[in-house]
């Protein structure tokens, strides 16, 4: 095991895949000469040169589409968005084209492309820079959606994403890039897409949390452990395909569930998980599933408002207390 | 910096250190400044003094905000306008007060010259309830709609069509006002600009598309992110266009006044490239390896604020006493603004739900 920062883990994965496959290339704003707005692609230009590490203008729709076309030619583009908040401008290429080209042509064209970058909020960046898009993309048929929480997951899943022959959305977070963690140094370390992980075992309540929310759940679980409540944390890692069996198995054990999701509540990840649990494990539930997510309100700038807006460990604890009838 | 590796296939143009002759390339080539004196431009002595005050205020406000940011008084992004003040100032003096202005996130200067007070501005940076946007917007979203300043926006290019929409509104209602949408050289590459230019020309909207070309889009020099001359974009749409020296407030004033008159009179759009230079990094965490110190110093030598001061002094419009009075007063105003911001209350948590919908008690999903 080696200790790596989150950004390094992603870079190692990209580097390894670029090393083994000539058709993999990286493009996005500031990815080459600036070494990445968040230094995820640091050093790749030096190593692979200007052909394979490409700075783009601020033209999200255009370069996402160029990526789609290049993928249809059999290349494997890794398209970086400075954040997924800016990928909104490229939504036409992702949603109307990348996900549909194979289907519409009756299978004549594949689109092996990775769209990656930070998702959701990163502190006080205001309303237009703070939205979690994982559920939105998961809504559309034809996309795999990954939103990881730790360096090890990032490495193994990024490698899988690049090798996948379909369009894959790979989500990170500005606030996690500096986070350190043990990363397997197994040669060619691959985590299959669609496999979640029990990251903390516990018997009292299941907490499902991915991406940045995983870390909020961990803080809550540490606090709850002091009160004798043992939380089982499941990080699905992949939003779609979802590792539902892992979640259901856990609920059969704990009989209670809280979903923590950094999105607004309506029709989000938490809503979907809640529905699936009632369908698959209704008889096992001792309490209604609860969720902790953002309010149905845009991201405010002011620190005080932002702190109130962002899901907190305290809210997770309250939700756990509610499903365990401890309040 | 990447090694000078010979690649047979290259896509994006290379940056500094990669020029074959090793010569430092300038961020932007400035067109000549106007030679006209203030009287010939129709500017009174009081106008000159007011222009100086405005530019000096923008500069000191931002220098102080940078300090407060570094002290940890507020977070988020902080994009400074320092170096570009002649553009906001020259434009606002050239425009009618009812003409509409909209811009990107580098918006403090625009706010200040359209009536955001230093106190309201600083409080907004601090995220306080007393800020111009009630602390909800922060640095990127200064606004003062009552003064026809529709705010700063954070999605590059996103506000360009909105500026044309303001013009649409003016034409529809017959107000006689015009609008101007200001954006960076980086935003020129967004499709939104091109869609909007076509419609603006087609529909004869009274709008100015104004590029503040400061040589860089974050860490990418303009010549590395966009082809040909930016101003020539206008040709493809049959749109009138101009290039202006943005380091000279007289030049901005002169040309923007002519253009504003033309747009108002003919109800036709105009595309304007104003060349300028940003002295600071893109935001607060920018090591600025993409440019040289020498390049920066070239532009600081022709600083628009110092240039106006020299003009005022050498033309005996005012003396040193005037400057010490003004500079002391503005310094005090800005310090008062910092104190005001610091002491102002944060919004109440419940205020988070205000300004989402027009109703007093709207529906929020839980
Ligand atoms: C759609 C979108 N893509 C990317 C960004 C990130 N971003 C913010 S400012 C910026 C550079 C813009 O440069 P320019 O238009 O020249 O304006 P300047 O900062 O020089 O004033 C980038 C890439 C963004 N905010 N929105
Ligand atoms: Mg620029």
Topology of this protein?
The complex is a heterodimer of chains A (327) and B (366).
Chain A: E1 2-5, H1 6-20, E2 24-28, H2 44-52, E3 53-55, H3 60-72, E4 76-80, H4 84-87, H5 91-98, H6 101-104, E5 114-118, H7 134-139, E6 144-147, H8 151-163, E7 168-172, E8 180-183, E9 197-200, E10 205-209, H9 212-226, E11 231-235, E12 238-240, H10 244-254, E13 257-260, H11 269-281, E14 290-292, H12 303-309, H13 313-323
Parallel strand pairs in A: 2-3, 2-4, 4-5, 5-7, 6-7, 10-11, 10-13, 13-14
Antiparallel strand pairs in A: 1-8, 6-12, 9-11
Helix pairs in contact in A: 1-8, 3-5, 9-13, 10-11
Chain B: H1 38-41, H2 45-70, H3 85-94, E1 100-104, H4 108-113, H5 118-125, E2 149-153, H6 160-173, E3 179-184, H7 191-203, E4 207-213, E5 216-217, E6 220-221, H8 222-225, E7 240-245, H9 249-266, E8 270-275, H10 293-300, H11 304-314, H12 320-343
Parallel strand pairs in B: 1-2, 1-3, 3-4, 4-8, 7-8
Antiparallel strand pairs in B: 5-6
Helix pairs in contact in B: 2-3, 2-11, 2-12, 3-9, 5-12
The structure holds thiamine diphosphate and magnesium ion.
């Amino acid at each position: 095991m080696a200790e790596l920062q989150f950004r390094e883990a992603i870079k190692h994965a990209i580097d390894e895949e670029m090393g083994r496959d000539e058709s993999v290339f990286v493009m996005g704003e500031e990815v080459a000469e600036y070494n990445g707005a968040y230094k995820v692609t640091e050093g790749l230009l030096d190593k692979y040169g200007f052909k394979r590490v490409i700075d783009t203008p601020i033209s999200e729709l255009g370069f996402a589409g160029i990526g789609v076309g290049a993928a249809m030619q059999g290349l494997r583009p890794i398209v970086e968005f400075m954040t997924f908040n800016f990928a909104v401008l490229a939504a036409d290429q992702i949603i109307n084209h990348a996900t549909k080209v194979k289907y519409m042509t009756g299978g004549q064209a594949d689109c092996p492309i990775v769209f990656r970058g930070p998702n959701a909020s990163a502190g006080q960046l205001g309303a237009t820079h703070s939205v979690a898009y994982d559920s939105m993309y998961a809504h559309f048929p034809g996309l795999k959606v990954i939103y990881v929480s730790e360096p090890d997951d990032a490495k193994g899943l990024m490698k899988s994403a690049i090798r996948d022959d379909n369009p894959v959305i790979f989500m990170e977070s500005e606030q996690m890039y500096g986070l350190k963690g043990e990363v397997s140094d197994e040669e060619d370390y691959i985590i299959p897409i669609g496999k979640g992980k029990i990251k903390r075992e516990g018997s009292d309540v299941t907490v499902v949390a991915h991406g940045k929310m995983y870390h909020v759940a961990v803080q809550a679980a540490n606090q709850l452990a002091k009160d004798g409540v043992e939380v089982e944390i499941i990080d699905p890692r992949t939003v779609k395909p979802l590792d539902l069996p892992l979640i259901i198995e856990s609920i059969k054990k704990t009989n209670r569930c809280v979903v923590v999701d950094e999105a607004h509540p309506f029709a989000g990840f938490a809503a979907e998980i809640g529905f699936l649990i009632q369908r698959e494990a209704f008889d096992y539930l001792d309490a209604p599933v609860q969720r902790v997510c953002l309010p149905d309100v845009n991201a405010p700038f002011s620190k005080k408002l932002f702190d109130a807006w962002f899901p907190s460990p305290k809210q997770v604890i309250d939700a756990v207390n509610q499903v365990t009838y401890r309040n | 910096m990447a090694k000078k590796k010979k690649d047979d296939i290259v896509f994006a143009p290379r940056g500094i250190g990669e020029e074959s002759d090793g010569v430092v390339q300038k961020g932007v080539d400035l067109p000549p400044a106007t030679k006209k004196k203030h009287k010939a431009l129709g500017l009174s002595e009081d106008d000159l003094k007011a222009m100086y005050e405005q530019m000096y205020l923008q500069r000191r406000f931002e220098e102080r905000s940078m300090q407060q940011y570094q002290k940890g008084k507020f977070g988020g992004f902080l994009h400074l306008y320092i170096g570009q003040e002649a553009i906001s100032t020259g434009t606002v003096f050239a425009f009618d007060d009812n003409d509409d202005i909209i811009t990107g996130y580098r918006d403090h200067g625009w706010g200040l010259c359209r009536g955001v007070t230093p106190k309201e501005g600083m409080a907004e940076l601090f995220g306080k309830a007393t800020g111009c946007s009630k602390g909800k917007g922060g640095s990127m979203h200064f606004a003062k709609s009552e003064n026809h300043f529709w705010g700063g926006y954070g999605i590059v290019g996103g506000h360009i069509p909105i500026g044309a929409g303001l013009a649409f509104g003016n034409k529809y209602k017959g107000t006689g006002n015009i609008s101007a949408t200001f954006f960076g050289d980086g935003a020129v590459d967004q499709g939104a600009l091109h869609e909007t230019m076509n419609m603006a020309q087609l529909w004869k909207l009274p709008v100015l598309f104004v590029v503040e070309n400061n040589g860089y889009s974050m860490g990418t020099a303009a010549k590395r992110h966009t082809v040909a001359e930016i101003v020539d974009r206008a040709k493809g749409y049959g749109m009138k266009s101009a290039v202006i020296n943005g380091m000279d407030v007289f030049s901005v004033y002169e040309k923007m006044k002519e253009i504003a008159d033309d747009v108002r009179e003919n109800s036709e759009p105009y595309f304007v490239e104003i060349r300028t230079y940003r002295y600071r990094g893109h935001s607060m965490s920018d090591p600025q390896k993409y440019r040289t110190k020498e390049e920066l110093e070239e532009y600081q030598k022709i600083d628009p604020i110092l240039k106006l001061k020299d003009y005022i002094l050498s033309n005996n419009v005012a003396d040193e006493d005037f400057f010490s009075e003004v500079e002391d007063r503005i310094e005090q105003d800005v310090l008062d603004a910092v104190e005001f911001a610091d002491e102002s209350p944060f919004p109440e948590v419940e205020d988070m739900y205000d300004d989402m919908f027009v109703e007093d008690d709207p529906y929020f999903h839980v």
